[in-house]
Amino acid sequence: MYIPPLKIQVRFSDLDILGHVNNVIYLSYFEMARIHYFTALVGPKWDWLKEGVVLVKNDVEYHIPILLHDEPSIFLFVKNIGNKSFSLGYKIMINDKLHTTGGSTLVCFDSTIQQAITIPTIMREGLSTLIENEN
């Protein structure tokens, strides 16, 4: 399944004193990308309380700063799918040039019973379409 990358509009409030996107903002960009891709995979009416996810790990590698007038696109791919957890990778590109890479580990979670759950079938099927090599 092809899902187009998330296009981000850099806001003035995203910048640090040097005029670069602040390090912490990249985690918000990754979160927006997850919402974009998950909506495409499982639909907007998915019950996130019963078949949700919790974030357990993030990492970011900053290659080239992102500036105010840049137009970044965020590509998301799946690195690994386990029984209850999965790992995602991110690439932030500007004009076909890699600016940032990152990753997240998420665990499927039912908030109504406060327990980790097996990845729901529809989610697993959708995630499996996004498996890609990091390189």
Q: What is the fold's blueprint, element by element?
A:
Layout: E1 6-7, H1 25-42, E2 52-62, E3 73-81, E4 85-94, E5 97-110, E6 115-116, H2 121-128
Percent of residues in beta strands: 35-45%
Assigned CATH architecture = Roll
Which residues sit in consecutive blocks of at least 5 with pLDDT less than 50? none
SSE class: alpha+beta
Please tell me the overall pLDDT. 96
The CATH fourth-level homologous superfamily? Hotdog Thioesterase
Distance between the termini: 19 Å
CATH level-1 class: Alpha Beta
Global shape: elongated
Number of strands: 6
Helix amount: 10-25%
* Oligomeric state, counting identical vs distinct chains: single chain
Tell me the number of helical segments per DSSP (H or I, 4 or more residues long): 2
Biggest sheet layout: 6 strands, antiparallel
Radius of gyration: 15 Å
Number of domains: 1
CATH T-level fold name: Thiol Ester Dehydrase, Chain A
What are the secondary-structure elements, in order, as H or E? EHEEEEEH
Task: Describe this structure as you would to a colleague.
By secondary structure, this protein is an alpha+beta fold. It has a single domain (6-128), classed as Hotdog Thioesterase (Thiol Ester Dehydrase, Chain A), CATH 3.10.129. It is 19% helix and 36% strand. It is built from two helices and six strands, in the order βαβββββα. It has helices at 25-42, 121-128, and strands spanning 6-7, 52-62, 73-81, 85-94, 97-110, 115-116. Strands 1, 2, 3, 4, 5 and 6 form a six-stranded antiparallel sheet that branches. β3 (73-81) and β4 form a beta hairpin. The chain is elongated and about 45 Å long. The mean pLDDT is 96.
